[in-house]
Amino acid sequence: MARLEDFRIEELEVPQPKDGEVLVLTLYLSVDPYMRSRMNAGKSYVPPFEVNEVITGGVVGEVVESRSPAFQPGDIVMGYLGWQVYQVARSEDLRKVDPKLAPVTTALGVLGMPGLTAYFGLLDIGKPKADETVVVSGAAGAVGMTVCQIAKIKGCRVVGIAGSDDKNEYLEHELWVDKTINYKTEPDIRGALKTACPTGVDIYFDNVGGHISDAVTTLISKQARSVICGQISLYNLEKPDVGPRVQRYLLVKSALMQGFIITDYAARFGEGVNRLGQWFKEGKLKYAENIVEGFENAPRALLGLFLGENLGKQLVKVG
Ligand code: NAP
């Protein structure tokens, strides 16, 4: 587990943009589980953060000064930028966010990276069909709650696993999730899953890994699809986790297990955003946000993801 002492805030002069650059005031920072993985040394699909360097991640900000014809002061933009109150960005690293289409925070959540992760992971790998049973772990988070809703849109039966009764109540009463399991209070997760999925699990959308996923895998049905999206229960481990071997379950059920990284789908982001945006406009796709106020509280918000403090997308309001 990272600690607050692992972070440091520094005060510097506000930088000045050069030609082709803009000065951005951060409005919202996105905090995401993958940031914890970037705090480890070693090769992964994104480079690790460097000690004494500024953390980077998804940011929504406002252009306050522009030396690029592409942006005007007042424009709302999104980019992968620093955890900074003010910063200079190259115009090609930013995209405009239209505040008339949806609240600007959705560019970091349901209509941004987490929404796209849910969309492509479930539809492209999970390939849901009506009446199938979909189990979602991390179900009340930014990705998970979007997966639950897309699965409902596709006519599936959805079972969500999350870490509090309040979260599960939200899933059942606001998002029409059929059954939920609180993995923190349920002593027999496999037994509860078996009751919730009497015909087996056709699709497992895995956000957490570990013992929850071990239990789900024993209940997969013939030709099940396991979508490996995240393994948050393992991100803080210092040694690899040794769990039951899953291959025999896949073998006897002719099942598929596939991991993915959302940037694999970069060429199709436009399609995903359009579809998510349409469902959002039609009132079929809801979202929740947990907004922590104040730039200085960003580290706390990041650590909170590992304590389950967020219902929906975790954000930090800065400007
Ligand atoms: P999130 O679900 O909004 O937040 C993390 C949630 O994980 C927490 O609220 C907590 O909820 C749960 N959690 C924390 N520790 C846990 C543990 N030990 N066991 C079980 N659950 C635990 O985060 P997100 O942004 O939507 O991401 C969800 C997952 O997708 C993460 O694993 C992330 O790394 C992954 N992801 C992958 C991609 C990709 O490209 N493949 C893209 C985005 C995200 P509870 O209260 O339920 O414990």
Outline of this structure?
With 319 residues, this protein is α/β, with parallel strands linked by helices. Helices cover 26% and strands 25% of the residues. The strands form two sheets. Strands 1, 2, 3, 4, 5, 12 and 13 form a seven-stranded mixed β-sheet that branches. It has a six-stranded parallel β-sheet with strand order 8-7-6-9-10-11, with helices on both faces.
Shape: globular
Distance between the termini: 28 Å
Helix content: 25-40%
Overall mean confidence score, pLDDT? 97
Largest sheet: 7 strands, mixed
Beta-strand segment tally: 13
Strand content: 15-25%
The SSE string, one letter per element, is EHEEEEHEHEHEHEHEHEHEHE
Which class do the helix and strand fractions yield?
Answer: alpha/beta
Structural Rg: 20 Å
Unreliable stretches covering 5 or more consecutive residues: none
What hetero molecules are bound to the protein chains? NADP nicotinamide-adenine-dinucleotide phosphate
Q: Note the total helix count.
A: 9
